[in-house]
Model the fold of this input.
Amino acid sequence: MTFPANIFASTNIGVDKTNLSILDDLNESQKQAVQHSGGPLLVVAGAGSGKTRVLTRRIAHLIGSQNVSPFEILAITFTNKAAAEMAERVSKLVGRVALRMWVSTFHSACARILRMDGSSVGIKSGFSIYDVSDATRLVDYARRDLGVDSKRFSPKGLQRSISNFKNELITPGQALENAQMDTQATVAKIYAEYEQRLRAANAVDFDDLLGKCVELLREDDEVREKYQNRFKHVLVDEFQDTNLAQWEFVRLISKKHNNITVVGDADQSIYRFRGADHLNMQRFEQEYEDASVVVLNTNYRSTENILNAANAVISNNNSRHKKELVSDKGIGEPIVVYYANSDRSEAQYVANTINKLSTTQSLDSIAVFYRTNAQSRLIEEQLIRNGISYRIIGGTKFFDRREIKDAISYLRVFSNQSDEASWRRIINEPKRGLGDTSISKIATFARNYGISFRKALEKPNEIGLSKKASTAALGLCSLFDVAANGEYETVAKVLEYLLEASGYKKMLEDEGSFESQGRLENLLELISQAREFDIAIDKKIEFAEQGDSGLEIPTFAHEDSTIFNPESVFDRIQAFLEAVSLLAESDQANANDESVTLMTLHSAKGLEYSTVFITGLEEGLFPHERSMGDISELEEERRLCYVGITRAMDRLYLTCALSRIMYATPDYFSPSRFLKEIPAELVNAIEDKEVPSEFMRSSAPGTNNKSSRYSRIYDDFAFDDIDPNDQSEQGRVIGQGKRPRRRDFATDEIIRSRIWGSDSASKDQISDVNEFEAQPLISQPPEPDFDTSEFAIGSRISHEKYGLGTITSLDTHKNGDIAISVDFPTDRTRTFMASLNPPIELV
DNA sequence: ACACTTCACCTTTTT
DNA sequence: GGTGAAGTGT
Done:
């Protein structure tokens, strides 16, 4: 079991002000950006072009040369880790005062503002912050109580829709007004109900942090004035990943002084699913006509080979301003592309290669990336087998574990008595005889009388609970009363008491299973993290009295300590909960021992490693199946690939596997189009030596009856000529799934030849860099036989999944592919590529 | 109310 | 392959 590196072990940052001059080691463009005197500034910063350096130096420059107070600067970064790093780097230039500045993520900054000033938009200071799973649960309660069918409106789908509304700053009322169909109206009603419940629970979700903050800045003149006056300079990193709410927040808060610097790279925009819109880069120029623009296009990170590969891949995106990075390093080694037979042999190759590399370079300088978290498991296994230590970023998150969520809920209930969702989580955990019936009664009572869940819990007799339930309810109340009696002064002490006195710990101990043992260990880990947090706060107090602080405590800067009383255990717990909620995946990236880093491509943004492995480069996985039908989503996948490649400084390995186990069922893939987009002369291609492994054939039949794109690719390639009625041994259909699983009886050789090309080139030929193109291992996906000749703008069509729609545009791309955009009244406008044979028919 | 089962769905990606 | 919802039996 891997625990996250301790997130609260406050890095005792070396804050010696070095003799570094602010303008040392900068090129002309960088200097220009750093010295920009004021007004709007857009820095278009390619990968590895010294973006962070520019931002850091600019802040230092403002403080050192422009007489700007550190407290008049608001700097927004993408993760808490990036924020801490930036504060540290600034502190090296201007001293410790930098550590008390507002350098934070959007979400942290907004949470802070809402804590202090949220009351006028209905947010009370003690609010709980719900993560996506909390929010989804609450949305589902709202759906259920409105009597809406969960089959047609899935909790996740609803949560996503609501989240999208919030990202676009659309209120429930507006959503209802805009609704054109019943389904949309239903979603809007659930949205309204969900909002009401959030407010009743004094809780906000992630999107609210921004949305409510924008509402506050828009509507409360006094508050707006306060922040606009205060922040004379606003700087935003990763601007290409801002959504409308974030953009609006930035615009509002910087409006008075208009000294706004944004830094970004449209080619690295990878958060569209979260509402990010890289066009915000262009909009910035339109909105601020007097904006200065600085372009940083010298890459100081990667070798020419790596950079050329990245440039080649990204140039396939059509909706893009052409720009090319120039490398400052030599040519470097060729990129290695490894074609594995299976996901297992892919993982073996990665582990073996790391083993070899580790004799000449530190494991810290090596990273392995993948598209989805689920891919990490096999790689982990092989690394363990090879005795290579690793750390994993994200994945099954520590704070997502059930026991941790329960413990957090105990704390939430302690600090926010109205938090119904958290009450529900812990009220019968451990079992107290307060089952579903009792819970419903309590919740209904609370709602009817407009009182908090806790207040209702105190009145079991009025509610009419059974005797056993009544006793349990009163017992629970007194548990929290005792916890709050002043005897327990720190987060750790309260937490320990609650877990002990509630019987939660005992419940796990009594269970005595291997699993419950693990859960107990996790709880101990949480308590120790709480302890670290307490220590950090206490140290902070000490330093603060000396007028200085070397420690970074999440959220509560000394400057604004009026809202945070370290003597109050309530405030401490609230701070702890907030730090935990807003923790980013990539915030855990530090570990002490030397090890390889594993993470998703998304988490990799902003980082760099000497050696990078990108695994799972297969059609359907990367680009992901879910993005393959929509051109703009496909382009986002390509940007993700670009981000991955440009993380590598010296060596880049790309791997793809012929077969891969998905949902415990083997499936077959063809190599990713991204591999083909890399010029052959940059590549050294290697093919798996091993005989295809047995397990691919012998694996137990599952019930994967999903008609996936992979299956289709697979079917098209391998089995057009296999008769499903063939009763011979070769053709016998095995497996009892609803759909015969034809893949089970085919030999790997058939599959291999059909998917990868019929006369698979010999290993030697493939390894020859120059012959790679001449001997393509990879056969193209099905030739586009999709006929668009009768399509015209305005044609009415019918789509298998989205129903009737109207063609709004037809674009022929430079590769000959045709993009068909269709407006669906029941859905958004979608774009389909003819080469992908979309299920569209003229009507 | 709870313990035990079977079943569907799942995986993009994250503040 | 793992999880949470829903169903079944005490």
User: Anything to note?
Assistant: The CA atoms of residues 445 and 463 of chain A lie 7 Å apart. Residues 514-545 of chain A form the longest helix (32 residues). Residues 1-19, 544-559, 691-754, 757-784 of chain A have pLDDT under 50 and may be disordered.
